[in-house]
Amino acid sequence: MRSQTNAILTTVFIVVAGTISSGCGSIGRVNRPTVTGDPCAQADWFEVGRLDGLQGIQEETSAYIGRCRRHLNEELYLAGWNRGLVDFCTPDRAFDAGRSGLDYTNGICPPQAEPTFLRAFAKGRELLKIERENADLESQIDRLRRLLDSPDTTGMSVVPQVSHDLQKLRDRRAKNEELVRTLENARHL
After folding, report:
1. Residue pair 120/98 in contact by the 8 Å Cβ criterion
2. How buried is 112 (Cβ within 10 angstroms: 0-12 exposed, 13-18 middle, 19+ buried)?
3. To which H or E segment does residue 11 belong?
4. CA 90 – CA 153 distance, rounded (Å)
5. In angstroms, how far is CA 10 from the centroid of its own chain?
6. Model confidence pLDDT, tens digit, residues 153-163
């Protein structure tokens, strides 16, 4: 025990003496190490797993593992992945994942969390569909507005029909916007 204490004190003395002899200019600065060689060999496998789990990515589809398989520490990766899943398998994350168009592989979330996750994911997916439809409606509305504003169309018999079609598109968009508000409010239910 005494020899360990002496070794630690000697190390501290050498570090302090080195700092003093260098003019104390480096106290408080952090020297960032540069990564040299193979970055896969220096991977924090717990963090890689946590990030994959947080995104619902399985080991088989992880791009990082694909590049660094020979360095994989599977035990650390799986521990991190399971930790990431705890945060991923929440209704809020499910809603956001569905809304952003991510795919979900059934069985990733634990059985007790998956039904709630899937309901929220479906709401997010439905919202994505409506938002895409609204974008399409918006481009159709713009096209019809340009047609109505065109000098070639002024005074033509198609104006009432185009105006009618334009109003139908606007009504559909308004209904969709109400659905968007309803789904956003229901994301926590």
Report:
1. yes
2. exposed
3. helix 2-21
4. 53
5. 48
6. 656 667 788 88
